[in-house]
Amino acid sequence: MIKFPFPYLTTGTIVHGFGRGSKELNCPTANLDASSIENLPVEIDEGVYFGWAQFLTNNNNELYKLVASVGTNPFYKCKVKTLEAHLMHNFETDFYGEKLKIVLLGEIRKMTSFKDANELAMAIQNDIVKAHHELDSDQSREYLNHPYFKN
Ligand SMILES: Cc1cc2nc3c(=O)[nH]c(=O)nc-3n(C[C@H](O)[C@H](O)[C@H](O)COP(=O)(O)O)c2cc1C
């Protein structure tokens, strides 16, 4: 169900993170620059969200399912709030420097800390399953035709 105040629309450039996503969590993430957070309401909860993403810069109009975290990554005790998106597609290459348009459609859970990285990795796999389910709904698929995604 997509409920008010969603959708949230934002844009960001993919920057280098700490490299933990692929190695430790078995989940490659696109770390977005600060502008992606600045476009979101300041009161947004530190949480995990589902939505759609589109590249702005590589002549690829495709829309990708995404699951994203917004927050300070309490498990890693970061200080700065970041948006980190996992695009639910197998890509051959990295996308550093590319811009992404993102529409967040709903929250899956609050961001939290875990006993170990394995528990976080399992929670993320669960998030991915839930995001697939949400994004397969007719209501979510309507956003594939959103004017924001017309390049
Ligand atoms: C779907 C998803 C859920 C996440 N949930 C949490 C969380 O609950 N707690 C947390 O500390 N970090 C969470 N993260 C953020 C990860 O800690 C972060 O993406 C990871 O450390 C990789 O960062 P790096 O690319 O800078 O190495 C989540 C990330 C994703 C993509």
Quick structural summary:
The protein has four helices and six strands; from the N terminus they run βαβαββββαα. The chain has 151 residues and is of the alpha+beta class. The mean pLDDT is 94.
CATH superfamily: Riboflavin kinase-like
Secondary-structure element order, as H and E?
EHEHEEEEHH
- Overall mean pLDDT score? 94
Percent range of helical residues: 10-25%
Which topology does CATH recognise? Elongation Factor Tu (Ef-tu), domain 3
Give the cofactors and ligands.
Answer: flavin mononucleotide
Neighbour order of strands in the largest sheet: 1-2-5-4-3-6
Overview of the structural elements:
This protein has one domain: Elongation Factor Tu (Ef-tu), domain 3 (Beta Barrel), CATH 2.40.30. Helix content is 22%, strand content 30%. The mean pLDDT is 94. The chain contains four helices and six strands, in the order βαβαββββαα. With 151 residues, it is an alpha+beta fold. The chain binds flavin mononucleotide (FMN).
Task: Itemize the secondary structure elements and their pairings.
Elements: E1 8-15, H1 20-25, E2 30-32, H2 35-38, E3 47-55, E4 64-71, E5 82-87, E6 99-110, H3 117-135, H4 138-141
Antiparallel strand pairs: 1-2, 1-6, 2-5, 3-4, 3-6, 4-5
Bound molecules: flavin mononucleotide.
Give the tags.
Elongation Factor Tu (Ef-tu), domain 3, ATP binding, 6 strands, binds flavin mononucleotide, globular, Riboflavin_kinase_dom_sf, 22% helix, 151 residues
